[in-house]
Amino acid sequence: MELYLNKTSPYARVARICAIEKQLDPQVNLIWVDPWADDKALLTANPNSKIPVLVTDEGEAISESLLIASYLDSLSPANSLLHTPHYADVLALSGLSQGLTDAAFTTVINRKHLGKESDLTVLGERRQKAITRGLQRLEDKVDTDVMRGEINLGQIITIVALSYIDFRLPERQWQHQHPHLANWATGLSERPSTTTTAFA
Q1: Which residues form the GST N-terminal domain (predicted)?
Q2: How is the chain split into domains, by residue range?
Q3: Coil, strand, or helix at residue 63?
Q4: Who has the most CB within 10 Å: 14, 63, 106, 123?
Q5: CA 38, CA 33: separation in Å to the nearest integer?
């Protein structure tokens, strides 16, 4: 398999962590690309020029991190990241933290191309409020089984979202207002899959 990615994409990092947690990383060839540079190999795999993209051994190109995670999870019944006793909760947590990632990522992209004043637009303010609400909801969920149990997709997306905010939006300093979430994140960030894939 081939995984197209770069080192700063939260979506690509989710896919890579999933591969590691499923012990599939020896089977995945990492192809580092710049999605903004119209890389020919990436465009062949995904005409949308978005990462991550996983090209299967059969030559199918799967885009979108959640779909890639689902596919990787299906390759082995052991240590499922999705089909746990808390399946619905895993999906709910995944969706919540994916939304947090989307709000943070879009904030970064808009600042890059339109300047920080883009935060003051209607859509910019909507994104900031979404980040605030998402962080609070995660704080409220820290002691639930889905966040305290075995590693799952929801936990993976959550730790990536939080570390991406630290990486790209450090002024947020969310840890001060959400100490339980910060403590939870510290523990999960020490897993080999997260240290190996740290943003750079």
Answers
A1: 1-80
A2: 2-74, 87-195
A3: strand
A4: 14
A5: 9
CA atoms within 13 A on the CB side of 32: 4
Instruction: In whole angstroms, give the CA distance from residue 154 to residue 28.
Output: 22
Distance of CA 20 to the CA centre of its chain: 14
Q: Decide: 3 and 19 in contact? Cβ < 8 Å.
A: yes
CATH of domain 87-195: 1.20.1050.10
Cis amide linkage into residue 52, ω under 30° from 0: yes
Q: Find out whether 188 and 197 touch, Cβ atoms under 8 Å.
A: no
Tokens of 78: 């052991």
- Residue 43 and residue 17 in contact, taking contact as beta carbons nearer than 8 Å: no
Contacts of residue 170, Cβ cutoff 8 Å, sequence gap at least 6: none
Q: Which CATH superfamily is domain 2-74 in?
A: Glutaredoxin (3.40.30.10)
Q: Tens digits of per-residue pLDDT, 119-163? A: 999 999 999 999 999 999 999 999 999 999 999 999 999 999 999
- 42 and 4 Cβ atoms separated by less than 8 Å: yes
Q: CA separation (Å) from 48 to 3, 51, 69, 109?
A: 15, 9, 19, 17
- DSSP annotation of 64: S
Tell whether pTM > 0.85.
yes
